[in-house]
Amino acid sequence: xxxxxxxxxxxxxxDENAGFWEGTAAGELRVQRCTRCERLRxxxxxxxxxxxxxxxxxxxxxxxxxxxSFVVAHPPLLPAYAALAPYNVVVVTLDEDPALRMxxxxxxxxxxxxxEVDPATIRIGEHVRAVFDPPNGAGIAMLRWMREAPxxxx
Amino acid sequence: xxxxxRHLLKDATAIAGIGQTALAKHLDPSETELAATAVTAAxxxxxxAPSEVDALCSYTMEATDEVELARxxxxxxxxxxxxxxxxxxxxxxxxxxxxxxxxxxxxxxxVAWRSRKRGSGPRPWTRPIAAPGDVxxxxxxxxxxxxxxxxxxxxxxxxxHEFGATRNHLANVALACxxxxxxxxxxxxxxxxxxxxxxxxxxxxxxxLCLYDNCLxxxxxxxxxxxxxxxxxxxxQRPAYIHAFAQGLPRQSQTMTNYFCEDPLRGPxxxxxxxxxxxxxxxxxxxxxxxxxxxxTPLVLMSLEGYGFCKRGEGAAFTEGGNxxxxxxxxxxxxxxxxxxxxxxxxxxxxxGVRQIRGTSTSQVDGADVCLVTSxxxxxxxxxxxxx
Lengths: 154, 388
Ligand SMILES: [Zn+2]
Prior knowledge:
Chain A is mostly beta strands.
């Protein structure tokens, strides 16, 4: 896995998953849909495990979901990540399907750093929505998550 | 045609020999030298000449291939060789492969081993990854979910949320393993006691997991010799019969980053357990000691549930009151396990299981006539039931 100009790992893009990254660059969250049984699936793969069709397309989903779990990473880490630690990583369940989950960071604003949310305020079940970083040096726009509403004092 | 025998493997083979090198943060010999040393030690323990070995079983991550191992150890002609993937999930699978080779007549003397310089070598997650097998990591590593500990911490947080487990439950696992290591002179942590206060004050690695939730980083090698049951009875050591063996890869599960399915907390242990207990004459209630894969403390809680020692969500409570330490109803990882004896991809759990059946553990459980040994939860896994 290569790194970008800041030393962050760059996602590996191939023919199978390119539709996802075309979506993030366009500011949309897209997942694969089986064109026979219409079930959504993620991560992308050639065959639908439910109806065994290889006919598939990327479709745009709402980008709304809820935090399923999260971690707060501390060193030892790769240098570019250690510089940001402690930072959060969250797993989000998409509203469209309870088995459809994605992994990224909770940020306070599109393009914001991954260590700006106070980890002590993160809760499982919090509603979040997809946001997208500006494209990095490799032209890849990373998916992140933002709270639906600003956090009020607890 | 008559139906295939349902229990072809049951008690058909036994582990007749175990061997190992020293286990330490750093050892000078190469992984190949360590592998050959452990294998010849196991053959010596079994009283079987290297020239009799005709099967070799190993992890796909093993650096020493069959050709090299055979040329060092001086085996005879090899008629069966095979490997099992998925790192820490492989251990019992490698021994199970050896048992199947012997039980089906493809070989007479099978050797299984693991040699690794994880203590001296680089941390695997610091290396570049781009192989096709790394597909799941493409969706997680760039976000900073870099290490196995991060991947397991994610499942752990959810587990704690759903079932009310606390850090004190994770500490129960770390402290039980350390207690057992403090009784085992061969353990890396033999002379290093650990208190609950020290556990709770330890630095974070990936919240909710701290330093002591992580296994050791160890150099060392271990090996076992598998032969037919009748042959084992003629060997010098008390046989540890391979009563049952199973592997597990649940439907729609993902290795390590198992978030992309409906029920991630029903992990590979649950799948392996179904076949294991179906094939066995015993049930979890008959098991008095277990060696449960412990690269990270929460994996033990999840495995206790998966293998049926308690109900779903009760793995944490099961560890209370010293229940998984020597003197409890199910002492776990009686040599110290990966957390406190050594981390060699779980192979030391297998040799400790054999010692319990022989009655030679440094934390021997009275009447241990059945021992469960498991490999990694969270990855495609495997398990063995050993019996006397
Ligand atoms: Zn389909």
